[in-house]
Design brief:
This protein is of the alpha+beta class. It has 2 helices and 5 strands; from the N terminus they run E-H-E-E-E-H-E. The chain has a 5-stranded antiparallel sheet with strand order 1-4-3-2-5. A hairpin with a 6-residue loop joins strand 2 and strand 3.
């Protein structure tokens, strides 16, 4: 397992998360249906907004397998990411 920082498009949704929560991360691209990139990922940390760098959304740190972390990075570069609570 590795720690994967992920920027979620809806900052208000990230505000609902707490360490230990389980989430599915969904990538929504302009073409094609949304797809689940990470299923049942554990929330490791929800950094405070004043410590974040970047534009739009909010940061969450997930504990996921290394392959899933790579998939999250790839999806985050081409799609808007959302989470659903498990």
């Amino acid at each position: 397992m590795v720690s994967a920082p992920v920027r979620i498009a809806d900052a208000a949704t990230v505000g609902l998360l707490r360490p230990g929560d389980r989430v599915d991360v969904v990538a929504a691209e302009r073409t094609g249906p949304p797809r689940v990139v990470a299923a049942g990922a554990r929330v490791a940390e929800v950094p405070h907004a004043d410590r974040e760098v970047g534009e739009g959304g909010a940061l969450v740190v997930l504990s996921v397998p290394r392959d899933t972390a790579r998939a999250l990075v790839g999806a985050g570069s081409v799609a808007r990411l959302a989470v659903t609570l498990c």
